[in-house]
Amino acid sequence: MKVGIIGGTGGIGQGMALRLSQNQTVYIGSRLEEKAQAACELCSYALKVLGLPFDLVPTTNQGVVDQADVVVFSIPAENLERTIESLQGLEGKTVISLMNPMVRADFFKYNPPEEGSAALKLQKLLPNSKIVAAFNNIPAGKWQQLSEPLDYSVCVCSDHADAKAEVMELVNSISELKAVDAGPLAVSPYVEAITPLVINIARFGKLRDVGVYFK
Q: Is the pTM of this model over 0.90?
């Protein structure tokens, strides 16, 4: 499977690239290809040091759309519309949203758009794409800790059965992650809202790598 990450130079984007590229071809995307090249070199070096296999390709965000079968939006939710305006060719593609819109005051608070969630907004902006909400609740820093397993449950929501099945298979190919079918995309607000909750639990409880497990 060819997986492309829009915003692949950020912390979560690079972490996903490190994990996914061991079994998939991964395109690291950025507005500036030189940033993607630098991120790709950094990830490649980390994987080489550990003796792990990888298949990483640097490109632009548009290059991700052009070359990947599955496109991941790993960007701040507030940049969504501007990013989509710069892209062409997402029609018919499986598109993963892992965005969790929130604000920070004395604590972190879920701050969804008027559509109800970042994933629902993405589906409105891309009506001809197959939007899937997934990977929302994995602790950001845990992605890059390659010496430790990722063993969380991953809620997967979509209105497209084929895209949901494809993403669940992708989830289950990463370390010890377990995909959970959470239903239609209308459930995505509840999934996204878990992230500020677990961040608050980690912050106030002085815990690390707080995540979600369904057993």
A: yes
100-122 confidence digits (pLDDT tens): 999 999 999 999 999 999 999 99
The pair of structure tokens assigned to 161 is: 């059965």
The token pair at 173 is 């190919």
Beta strand 108-110 with 102-104 is antiparallel
User: Could you tell me if 13 and 143 are in contact, meaning their C-beta atoms sit under 8 angstroms apart?
Assistant: no
The predicted-structure confidence for 154-203, as pLDDT tens digits, reads as follows: 999 999 999 999 999 999 999 999 999 999 999 999 999 999 999 999 99
- Looking up tokens 């492309």 gives 4
- Residue 83's identity, in one-letter code, is T
Q: How far apart are CA 59 and CA 192, in angstroms?
A: 28
Residue 164, classed as helix, strand or coil, is helix
Q: What angle do CA 93, 63, 176 make, to 5 degrees?
A: 60
Which residues does 153 contact at the CB level (< 8 Å), separation at least 6?
177, 178, 180, 211, 212, 213, 214
Question: What would you report as the CA-atom Rg of the chain, rounded to the nearest whole angstrom?
Answer: 16
DSSP, collapsed to helix, strand or coil, labels residue 153 as strand
